[in-house]
Amino acid sequence: MKQRVTTVSWNHGALKILDQTLLPDKVAYVSCTKLSQVHEAIRKLRVRGAPAIGVCAAWGVYLGLHKSKAKSAKQFINELNRVTAYLATSRPTAVNLFWALDRMTRQALKYPAYSPNELKEILFNEAAHIAKEDSDLCDRIGKFGEKLFRHGDTVLTHCNAGSLATAGSGTALSPIYAAKARGKKIKVFADETRPLLQGARLTAWELMQNGVPVTVICDNMAGSVMAKGKINKIIVGADRIAANGDTANKIGTYPVAVLAKYHNIPFYVAAPSSTFDFAIPDGGHIPIEERHADEVRRGFGKLTTPENVDVHNPAFDVTPNELITAIVTDQGVFYPPFTRTLKKIKNENH
Ligand code: MRU
After folding, report:
1. Ligand 1 proximal residues by C-beta, below 6 Å
2. What is the pLDDT of residues 271-321, one digit of tens each?
3. Could you confirm whether 330 is annotated as catalytic?
4. Given 29, 43, 109, 166, which is the most exposed site by the fewest CB atoms within 10 A?
5. From atom 6 of ligand 1, which residue's Cα is the shortest distance away?
6. Which of 35, 37, 57, 59 is nearest to 48 (CA)?
7. What is the homologous superfamily of the domain 8-139 according to CATH?
């Protein structure tokens, strides 16, 4: 990748977050000094994409405790539990959020004899470690996924699962950047991704920044573009993958997978090990976030439906495993039957 903006970083006592609600108009950052600002940034999608949410939550835990006046490890852990419980209410679907909160907690619990100041340092190091690790996982996804792509491929993606959604080169887009670095010419079609336009605003922006040819289509054009033979591969990210490979991702992913099956186009999911939830057997157990009706009624300021009309606005859908050709992870590319093959993936919860 030529250029990468940093989505989340610790900066002189504050959490600096790229405000993705302003893209592609403006590259601007919010500086969070209070835990409520981190919660708001996640809820309002200033920071979004499952891995970036996880990294942000890890830093959020540190932010919420770095000025703690706790007198003992026990008091400190009580505060930690309050901070993680609060951040856990920011968004429900991306498992990386809960994964990161658990990981921060587990790390602190390893040192019951430490002072609160020592525990603060432990939390700082763990958040920095989670961020660095996420970047490494993206690179590994790129390395494994790149082999699936050939010179001349035209690839459809949905939502944004690129560098903006992670602390590194992305998940679904990482193999495309890696393929480009190896001299393969790949073109991308980006679904605009109603209602919040992550494809049009974010994927198109970051691909253009990185010199990857990209064409934006409205979501309802994907079928006809496939029927015309213009797309030969599809790759998307994931917010949570169940033990059987069922995958929650941005709303509209499931119909793309159905269309892919009909048109005989390989449909790949790319995700780091932190996105797998082996505690749930299938996608029916994934909580799906319902967002505010105004995102549909007046998404970017203009009223586009009758005022107060009823709206259904789920932020994610679940693609059943039988529609997925392969899942690209930092630990290799996994093929069906996923219930068996995914057992090889190692993460803290497995
Ligand atoms: O609502 P968002 O923008 O957080 O949704 C993001 C997605 O659905 C991404 O595809 C997913 O989190 C994977 S990001 C690497």
Report:
1. 45, 48-51, 94, 159, 161, 165-166, 171, 198, 237-239, 249-250, 315
2. 999 999 999 999 999 999 999 999 999 999 999 999 999 999 999 999 999
3. no
4. 109
5. 49
6. 57
7. translation initiation factor eif-2b, domain 1 (1.20.120.420)
